[in-house]
Amino acid sequence: MNQLVDRPTPIDSPLSHPLAPVPTEGHIFDVTRRLGTVDMDENQYLRIDGIARHLQDAGVDHLIHMDALDSHPHWIVRRTVIDVLHPITWPAQLRIRRWCSGISPRWCTMRARIDSDNGGLIETEGFWIHMNKDTMSPSRLADEFFEVMCTTTDDHRLRWRQWLDAALPSTPGTRFPLRRTDTDHFQHITNTAYWHAVHEFTADATELTRAPHRFVLEYNKPIRYGEHLDIHTDRTSDALTLWFSVDGDTRAIAQLRPAAR
Fold this sequence. Notes:
Blueprint: E1 29-34, H1 48-65, E2 75-86, E3 93-104, E4 107-116, E5 121-132, E6 137-138, H2 143-149, E7 174-175, H3 191-202, H4 206-209, E8 213-219, E9 229-235, E10 240-246, E11 249-258
Antiparallel strand pairs: 1-3, 2-5, 2-8, 3-4, 4-5, 5-6, 7-9, 8-11, 9-10, 10-11
Helix pairs in contact: 1-3
């Protein structure tokens, strides 16, 4: 890991912006879940990969609730933001509220707030692209689906803007083994598998995680089972950045930093 170097985030960077609050009206999916022991760490906190699993499951349940799973079954997440404001500890009942915070004809940002009955609070947002599995290209949302999503946002011309674009460090990475169970129906490594690596390489960064903190993960290109994945890291005074690389090609970048205020 590189020595600590101050590289301040530009003041207008979205990395330093708080996520939008829960809307007062419009379509908000609301579901409760139990926190299972499979998702807790050695200190009984909800792990970051466990948060990702709850978000994925809530997304599927939301589509079922809207009777939209058959018409919109395939999605790829381009970016996930997770703000751990008050860690959730086991045992706990979770309340997950999910709504649209920005939309265009082929993609949308989906906010999700996770509250626990023991005082935990996690705020998240994902940039989701609706896919045509046959062509592996973005697919237009149905008009009815689009209209419902628009009830919680005025941003109907959502555009992609990359948040993490630093070049891959020249220092050697650490090999991170992949498993067959990490593969999804696109033949890509699942979202949760990336978060396994994030947890592994950030678990000891307690100077960042002891206070409210933010994880950002952006996916650039898919990783497939059988490829050799290396994780490169860089530590500054206020952030820990991870690069997911295959043969020197950056496939994803993640960052742990203080939560936006």
